[in-house]
């Protein structure tokens, strides 16, 4: 249109007219009215502006409209004269044959005292007045006599008769008008940026400010072009509109405004990101301070974590599936179940079982707590329909409270959960007392180990429960399988064993059964699988079933729960900072977890009393060498004879000790002592992909000696 040098001269001319007097003009209500007019004033509704809002109900819609009417009155009382003047000036200059640039400069001179955004909205309002009148007559002249007479004066019936050939021209007008509105909306949004969160020295805003005069000029220039089209159409007839002499200008201006708008939106997005970051920092700081304060109840804490916005009922009751207010949680012990959308069926199944058992005893003081699911979704990921369905599926299965949508968990809250409560992707259970204080940063381990008996799930309660525990078989299987508990009551010898080597399982079970027969002891064996490699475990289970090697758990959830409880015992000690205390019970648990990573293993007990805990190789060797220690049985008894020989074998073949902590585990110890030799273990980083698990387990930290 113009060369670069002419463009520079032109903008200097526009800048020279800009002399704002400092008045603040709220043009947002006027823009809303203008958009409504332009949205309705078309030959065919081909676009809908973003400002068309969803109404929550008729009463809300009427209240909103009433508020808009008040805003319109205030703005128009002050600016209607200016709008009328610009409208008349545009029409007059179009009829006088003035070129578009001179008309545009004249408008800038008329609006010299207004800020840039007001110049644009007022000019667009002047055009809407003229354009809206044209289409109002076009839409009602066939049914209203007054409108028909006025439409005839403007040659509208003739124009409408040729609406078919005119459609491409009106489509071009609509596209340009849409671009004009988009740029104008950007201008108003820049003006509405909160100065408390962003200043003009922010690069994105600085860059935008330098382009705003150019954007305003080309938008007003486009208004003039559109107004000229309508004015000349109603004065010169449809023959003018059918000519192609000026058609190129509409498409050229639309292309130019689209480029300008794209650039402004990019800068506006950067500004919003800057504001969002500052608000998140502020909200995060507020959360930190809030959790350090003392409160009379938990409502301030819950409202800070679950941002209701305009929804007075931001949570869903799992028992009724109805939305409720946060008041249902006031002054209650609240367990925040925090997870991503990939929380496993096994976890939910066991949690539901524990939760439902606690509901049976609702009158008991040790069962009065509520659970609410807090789903954490990466704020940088675009929310999809598939994710929404996944959320709804999980939500529908939960009997406890859930948030109505993950969006009520703000970005700053997600940051707090990750930084302060060490959430990665593995589910955690943060416990708030009736005053909103965090009494346990993660009670999931207590829940797995002791269930609702751990109420009120405080760190002190955790320490107390550990003091009551001992290294006995009930610790490993309690709450999982009543069959093994019956064996314990009967005082039987019990081999609890695991691993993924079919051949080792076959040799171990057959040899153990032979030793039991030879020693005349009542022996039961139970296979409890492995913490990983589910497909290999399934193969072992198939072999045990066909060959009837031993008792086993048919439900995979029971196997998962066994290993989750064991790992929880380790994490519980990590959380307490007592991982490497000289606690014989914890040493045995660590051995068991380590053996699981290095092949087979077996724990031998007589009733509740655990006799020996050994690696698969040492246990099998001890049983195979039965003839070497069977003479000791009459003297020492089977228990001591077996244990003494196992210790000799173990002393010759020390197995490697290894622990793996996935990055998703949250709290990972800086160092760990070996349960065998008590020296500090070496630390490695391992990348692991277990395809049979259904999803990869990435980047666990691996410690070994």
From TrEMBL:
GO biological process, alphabetically ordered: phloem development
Protein name from the UniProt record: Protein SIEVE ELEMENT OCCLUSION B-like
Domain of life of the source: Eukaryota
PANTHER family recorded: PROTEIN SIEVE ELEMENT OCCLUSION B, PROTEIN SIEVE ELEMENT OCCLUSION B-LIKE
InterPro entries xref list: SEO_C (IPR027944), SEO_N (IPR027942), SEOA (IPR039299)
Native species: Linum tenue
Domain Sieve element occlusion N-terminal: 5-295
Domain annotation Sieve element occlusion C-terminal: ranges: 461-691
């Amino acid at each position: 249109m113009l060369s670069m040098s002419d463009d520079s001269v032109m903008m200097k001319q526009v800048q020279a007219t800009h002399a704002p007097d400092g008045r603040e003009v709220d043009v947002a209500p006027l823009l809303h009215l203008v958009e409504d007019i332009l949205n309705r004033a078309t030959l065919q509704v081909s676009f809908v502006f973003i400002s068309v809002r969803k109404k929550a109900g008729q009463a809300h819609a009427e209240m909103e409209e009433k508020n808009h009417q008040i805003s319109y009155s205030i703005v128009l009382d002050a600016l209607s004269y200016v709008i009328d003047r610009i409208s008349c000036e545009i029409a007059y200059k179009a009829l006088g044959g003035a070129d578009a640039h001179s008309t545009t400069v004249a408008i800038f001179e008329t609006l010299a005292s207004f800020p840039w955004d007001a110049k644009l909205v007022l000019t667009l309002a002047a055009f809407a007045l003229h354009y809206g009148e044209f289409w109002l007559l076009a839409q009602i002249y066939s049914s209203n006599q007054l409108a028909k007479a006025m439409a005839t004066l403007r040659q509208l019936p003739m124009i409408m008769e040729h609406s078919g050939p005119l459609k491409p021209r009106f489509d071009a007008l609509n596209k340009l008008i849409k671009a004009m509105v988009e740029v104008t909306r950007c201008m108003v949004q820049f003006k509405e940026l909160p100065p408390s969160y962003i200043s003009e020295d922010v690069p994105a805003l600085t860059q935008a400010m330098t382009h705003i005069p150019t954007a305003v000029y080309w938008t007003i220039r486009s208004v003039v072009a559109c107004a000229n089209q309508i004015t000349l159409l109603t004065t010169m007839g449809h023959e003018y509109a059918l000519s192609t002499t000026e058609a190129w200008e509409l498409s050229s201006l639309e292309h130019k405004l689209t480029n300008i708008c794209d650039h402004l939106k990019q800068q506006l997005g950067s500004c919003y990101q800057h504001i969002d970051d500052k608000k998140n920092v502020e909200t995060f700081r507020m959360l930190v301070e809030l959790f350090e304060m003392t409160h009379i109840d938990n409502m301030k804490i819950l409202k800070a974590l679950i941002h209701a916005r305009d929804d007075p009922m931001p949570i869903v009751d799992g028992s009724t599936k109805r939305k409720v207010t946060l008041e249902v949680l006031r002054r209650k012990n609240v367990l925040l179940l925090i997870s991503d959308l990939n929380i496993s069926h096994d976890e939910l199944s066991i949690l539901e079982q524990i939760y439902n058992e606690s509901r049976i005893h609702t009158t008991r003081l040790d069962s009065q707590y509520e659970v609410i699911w807090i789903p954490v979704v990466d704020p940088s990921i675009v929310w999809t329909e598939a994710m929404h369905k996944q959320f709804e599926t999980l939500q529908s299965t939960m009997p406890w409270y859930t948030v109505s949508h993950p969006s009520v968990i703000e970005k700053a809250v997600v940051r707090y959960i990750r930084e302060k409560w060490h959430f990665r992707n593995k589910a955690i259970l943060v416990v708030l007392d009736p005053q909103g204080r965090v009494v346990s940063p993660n009670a999931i381990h207590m829940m797995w180990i002791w269930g609702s008996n751990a109420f009120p799930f405080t760190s002190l309660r955790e320490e107390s429960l550990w003091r009551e525990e001992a290294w006995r078989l009930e610790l490993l299987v309690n709450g999982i399988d009543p069959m093994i508990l019956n064996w314990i009551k009967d005082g039987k010898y019990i081999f609890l064993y695991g691993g993924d080597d079919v051949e080792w399982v076959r040799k171990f079970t057959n040899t153990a059964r032979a030793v039991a027969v030879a020693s005349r002891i009542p022996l039961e064996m139970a296979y409890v699988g492995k913490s990983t490699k589910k497909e290999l475990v399934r193969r072992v289970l198939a072999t045990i079933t066909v060959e009837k090697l031993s008792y086993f758990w048919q439900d995979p959830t029971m196997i998962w729960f066994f290993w989750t409880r064991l790992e929880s015992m380790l994490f519980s000690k990590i959380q307490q900072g007592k991982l490497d205390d000289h606690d014989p019970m914890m040493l045995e648990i660590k051995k068991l977890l380590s053996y699981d990573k290095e092949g087979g293993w077996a724990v031998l007990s007589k009733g509740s009393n655990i006799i020996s805990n050994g690696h698969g190789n040492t246990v099998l060797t001890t049983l195979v060498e039965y003839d070497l220690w069977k003479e000791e049985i009459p003297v020492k008894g089977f228990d001591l004879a077996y244990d003494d020989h196992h210790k000799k074998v173990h002393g010759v073949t020390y197995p490697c000790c290894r622990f793996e902590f996935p990055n998703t585990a949250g709290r990972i110890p800086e160092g760990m002592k070996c349960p065998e030799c008590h020296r500090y273990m070496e630390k490695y980083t391992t990348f692991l992909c277990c395809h049979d698990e259904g999803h990869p387990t990435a980047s666990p930290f691996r410690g070994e000696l």
